[in-house]
Amino acid sequence: MRDLNPEMNRAHMAVCKDPAMKIIGEFPNLDFEEVSSCLNGIYDFLRSNNPQLGEVEYLLEVKFNDQEASTGKISSQNILDCLKNGANIIQVNTSLETVGVSKISIMGIPEISGYSRENQCCVVHVINGIDIRLYCNGLTLKDVNINNPFSQSLTVKKYSRQASDYIQSIIDHYKHRVQFADSCSHWDPPGDRNKRILYGKRRTEMIFHKNLWTWLEENLDATVYGTVNKLSTDQTDIEIHARNTPLFYILEIKWLGINSSKTSHSWDRLERGITQVINYLEGDPQCLEACLVTYDGRELEEFKKLEDCGGENNQWKEFRKCGTKEFPEKGRGLLLFLENKTASERNM
Asked: What is the average per-residue pLDDT within 283-310?
């Protein structure tokens, strides 16, 4: 492949040396020059075809010793056709000829690393058209920007997580925005927390919903939809879609306590929520899990009454059942206590 930018080609060759050496370390029978040249060819291909591929995300699996017959040189149209047909892994040899396709359900770091280890191969994760991450035999080798090879690695947000870790992201959100009302105005009035009255006017649930939705959009490596209406008319549903897969997670948001409109909810609210989760899971086989997320504005003594199967007893808990209702295997429940003191007051 002819390179139209000799300086960029030299930069790529320099950047290739480090991962090429690590690949040789994993597979000593490979030739360093062949590996380095192959990586440089991939960088050149991605840069040349970026206008056609844009921000399409996919994986290139490099088969260094592959003897399979190829279907021709890799091309942007070839990649788009493979993605259209449901594959997200394009397998190539060192001459960048397509020799096969495959698929991985979730393109997260643990999943790609595991794939490269199980198949003893080198994988190039094309993240957004110009940023790539290299894996080899279970190791994460290097992050490279094809337009600026010497740039720093991709910035990872402090609370950034994979879609499959959505439960931990919900807990992150609770601890850093909601627990002490740091960035969530759910008390009414905001300056008077002692009465434990939640904001009403038919907006109580939506306050928690929008705040959580924004957090998940910012901190999950996933596509997050709010007010979905896909499986019910309930406007508080949130769907979390892992990238490049039809599989997703559903969140149902509830609250307990009393609000300024004098609406009150207690344990029966959780039981109805569990029923909704059951209906969600029965209604769509592509739903990986459905989680009932409930913010508890009642007194601490009431919060403590629910049996938990994991959590921090005076802050949040994960539960499996409430009253006569119990979650199915793919159902989960979180109960999150709303403090009416500031963090500093609580720790005094």
From this structure: 91
